[in-house]
Amino acid sequence: MRLLLAILVALTLPAAAAASEPRTVKPDRAAIDRLLDAFIPAAVVQKDLQRGWELSAGAARTVSHADWMEGNTSVQKYPAKGTKFRGWTVNYSYPGDIGFDILLQPAKQSLGAWSFRAEAQRIHGAWKITTWYPVATFAPPGKTQTVLGPNDLGAANSASAGSGTDHGRLGPWVLALPVAFLGAIALLATGFAGSRAFRRRARVREIERQLQA
Q: Which has the closest alpha carbon to 160: 62, 53, 66?
């Protein structure tokens, strides 16, 4: 019975997770536009570190205020070009929680564009960046075009990723592992119980034959 209950629990976990998934909503693009227009120059370009501190939270602000003000922030520094940042694409949008990707162009010609993955959350009525890390870098114009992904950016940048870059969800094969494992245990337990019962019946028959003799 315990094994059956464990299997039932494992089978219902994905359904329960889906049921608890927050509802998706239309992203507040105007609010995120304003946030990025302030956050990128202040925190990413580091033109106004105090303002960048105020617009950050969570995994995007994991260092002390003193370290942050010295430029040792938990946000990847990048000399982004421009003052308006509208070209972001939504990965998910829940009430008070938006995940997105944005491609930034460099102010220096010696650098290529960088793609960042980010999350913004509404905290105490104000939108703040809670996750910010690079996911790809591109070669500058005139250079051999190569794209470096997150695995190529090194441990230093992966540390700044903090909460998991993707708000990633586990693949179906991962969810199937515990179910398969519990199923194997159930089969072994059933086989073991059957073997014991078979041996018990054989022993009873042997005793009966001895008594009849």
A: 62
Query: Helical H runs in 2-97?
Result: 2-20, 29-39, 49-54, 65-69
* E strand or H helix that includes residue 130: strand 126-138
pTM score of the predicted model = 0.61
Question: For 116-161, how does the pLDDT look when each residue is reduced to its tens digit (9 = 90+)?
Answer: 999 999 999 999 999 999 999 998 877 766 666 555 554 444 333 3
The identity of residue 61, as a single letter, is R
Q: Give the span between the Cα atoms of 98 and 25, in whole angstroms.
A: 9
Residue 134: which residues within 8 A CB-CB, separation 6 or more? Answer: 76, 78, 114, 115, 116, 117, 150, 153, 157
Instruction: Count the alpha carbons within 13 Å of 45 in the hemisphere toward its beta carbon.
Output: 19
**Of the candidates 93, 52, 99, the residue with the CA atom closest to the CA atom of residue 72:** 52
Rg for the chain (alpha carbons), in Å?
28
Element of type H or E holding 123: strand 114-123
Q: Shortest CA distance to 94 belongs to which of 66, 68, 119, 126?
A: 119
Kindly report the three-state secondary structure assignment for every residue of 174-190.
HHHHHHHHHHHHHHHHH
